[in-house]
Amino acid sequence: xxxxxxxxxxxxxxxxxxxxxxxxxxxxxxxxxxxxxxxxxxxxxxxxxxxxxxxxxxxxxxxxxxxxxxxxxxxxxxxxxxxxxxxxxxxxxxxxxxxxxxxxxxxxxxxxxxxxxxxxxxxxxxxxxxxxxxxxxxxxxxxxxxxxxxxxxxxxxxxxxxxxxxxxxxxxxxxxxxxxxxxxxxxxxxxxxxxxxxxxxxxxxxxxxxxxxxxxxxxxxxxxxxxxxxxxxxxxxxxxxxxxxxxxxxxxxxxxxxxxxxxxxxxxxxxxxxxxxxxxxxxxxxxxxxxxxxxxxxxxxxxxxxxxxxxxxxxxxxxxxxxxxxxxxxxxxxxxxxxxxxxxxxxxxxxxxxxxxxxxxxxxxxxxxxxxxxxxxxxxxxxxxxxxxxxxxxxxxxxxxxxxxxxxxxxxxxxxxx
Length: 418
Ligand code: EPZ
Prior knowledge:
Elements: E1 2-7, E2 12-17, H1 22-31, E3 39-41, H2 48-59, E4 63-67, E5 70-74, E6 82-83, H3 85-90, H4 97-105, E7 107-111, H5 124-132, E8 136-140, E9 143-147, E10 155-157, H6 163-173, E11 179-183, H7 189-200, E12 204-206, E13 212-216, E14 224-226, H8 232-245, E15 247-252, H9 256-259, H10 261-269, E16 272-276, E17 279-284, E18 292-295, H11 307-316, E19 320-324, H12 335-339, E20 344-348, E21 351-355, E22 364-366, H13 370-382, E23 386-390, H14 393-396, H15 402-408, E24 412-417
Parallel strand pairs: 2-15, 3-14, 6-7, 10-11, 18-19, 22-23
Antiparallel strand pairs: 1-23, 1-24, 3-5, 4-5, 7-9, 8-9, 11-13, 12-13, 15-17, 16-17, 19-21, 20-21
Helix pairs in contact: 1-2, 1-7, 4-6, 5-6, 8-11, 8-13, 11-13
Bound molecules: ligand EPZ.
Residues 22-23, 26, 93, 119-126, 160, 162-165, 304-305, 327-328, 370-371, 398 line the site of ligand EPZ.
């Protein structure tokens, strides 16, 4: 197991290019099973969630080959349709394999994906939608068994704009007989990217990015070579890192429209932000002001995946902030670690009440989940003195070479084997 050793208090300067989006590459890998033709995804980030999804595809009988910075999948020999429970537990987002396996094999068996460190994360919205498409679903010994004679288009209304459920519905509807109209769809940029990918395979999907998506079932889907959208959450993490540490940083690859309300909130803190095409420049000098209120919402609201990073920023700012986490039940588990650094934060249910302090001191910290771990790194970068961040397996799930990119910006950070 590795750890970071971080000597905080340094400003960040320079430019960093965002990786391909973890939350796009994962559904694209699931979509690769829709066809028996070859699929290549370029600029694949080197992160463990991708490795885990690759392992799931191999378990299904697909050939998965990483070469240079791309991954090629040939699922022509895939036959299996059961996803092993160990892998489902490790990677919750394997749940959107259901849609592509049902399209390919008309059968999918998946261990009930457990909750995780950020909440219960049920899959009722996924299963109810699949039933609308003609899928019979039963549970057996902790497994969800999904079967259908054929998939048929339907009108589906999502009660909540679930990202994963929206993706699963697209994957199950692209070759269904007839037309599917999905109302109440999630509007995240990763959904738009999945639509582009599916259309490049020959699917007929339109409306992604809005809450109404229409899918016309087609008979066949071809192979594709595709470069995913860049990671807006990684980009936002670097922008917030600069706000915490001070300095001037340019993040390339993500447009302002994909970060939406985050830029407004950073300006509210007192940062200077300039955007041009897919470049975002931030500069931060002197003590910033708290945001007063941040509420996480589905896109285009404040992203829940940047909540921990924004709470950390506010811990250093002047004044007070109320952070409301509306998407997940327990997404403040990193807060006790910040309090050990001197942060003044009180968590009550979905609310975190932050009183800014003039500075945090270094400590030995333990990451508990992906984005909470990233927030601890930001806190260590802004704190006076040396910190350690343990259990990097969480951070490695979603950040490709985080320490290398931060070091390039001037951070004093090294990764050592424990
Ligand atoms: C995706 O998770 C992302 N993961 C998450 O990013 C992100 O936080 C989340 O969307 C929200 O934006 C991937 O894309 C791989 P949801 P997903 O379905 O699809 C409830 C990260 O850090 N819900 O939109 O699981 C659910 O419990 C990860 O990169 C149901 O109630 O999120 C949650 O409260 C973390 N029933 C809310 O909806 C369902 O059937 C949002 O979930 C499905 C979801």
